[in-house]
Design a protein that fits this description.
Elements lengths: L1 H13 L2 H8 L14 H8 L1 H24 L8 H13 L12 H12 L2 H21 L5 H21 L4 H17 L1 H5 L2
The structure holds SN-glycerol-3-phosphate.
SN-glycerol-3-phosphate binds next to helix 3 and helix 6.
């Protein structure tokens, strides 16, 4: 049964809402900005409402399967790890875009929100905001895909430090490792560019 739940969670993550909303608004997100099929490029192409809707749906496809399975008591212990990683992996390896998915940031926030009742999402969001301010202070407002990717991954390392300091349970630390590994994979192109 666990295999079925993992498959459903992966399938949920693979639904490319921002990309599809972009098509509905007559934009191919692959040609916008850095080409990522996510909410930020949807916002750039089609405006605030479209972008916010895309980010919300990409968040929910990670949040809902994990929250429902955890809330129903269907999964517990280490079984949480593949369930939590599945939506993030689904977004990064979606069959709907020939297995070339997106960066998986919005879905990561959704999964962590379900796993920790929004605590880690809040910590991560504050961390990313502080890193952004620091980088902008150093680089004077200019940004790059590589710099953005470095902030995403470095921010996750700070989150790990927080989790260790707060003695989070072992299965959540394994969730962190699984999701971090997918984020490294989903940002690999940013480190090849430039
Ligand atoms: O990480 P994604 O693919 O959900 O996209 C979210 C943002 O657009 C990333 O810039």
């Amino acid at each position: 049964m666990l295999t079925l739940w993992i498959a459903i969670s992966w399938l949920s993550g693979s639904l490319m809402f921002s990309y599809w909303l972009g098509l509905m608004a007559r934009h191919n997100l692959g040609t916008i900005g850095d080409g990522n099929p996510g909410g930020v490029n949807l916002y750039k192409a089609a405006g605030f409402r479209w972008g916010l809707t895309g980010i919300a749906l990409d968040f929910l496809k990670g949040y809902l399967p994990v929250a429902i399975l955890l809330g129903s008591g269907t999964i517990e212990g280490m079984a949480i790890v593949p369930i939590a990683a599945a939506p993030v992996l689904g977004h990064a390896t979606t069959p709907f875009l020939k297995f070339k998915g997106g960066k998986a940031i919005a879905v990561t926030f959704g999964v962590w929100s379900a796993l920790t009742q929004f605590e880690i999402s809040l910590v991560y969001a504050v961390t990313l905001a502080v890193l952004l301010l620091i980088v902008r202070g150093i680089k004077g407002g200019s940004s790059s895909s590589r710099s953005d990717a470095a902030q995403i991954l470095f921010g996750m390392l700070i989150v790990l430090g927080y989790m260790l300091a707060r003695h989070f349970p072992r299965e959540l630390l394994w969730c962190w490792l699984a999701i971090f590994s997918v984020l490294v994979y989903s940002h690999r192109r940013e480190f090849r560019k430039e």
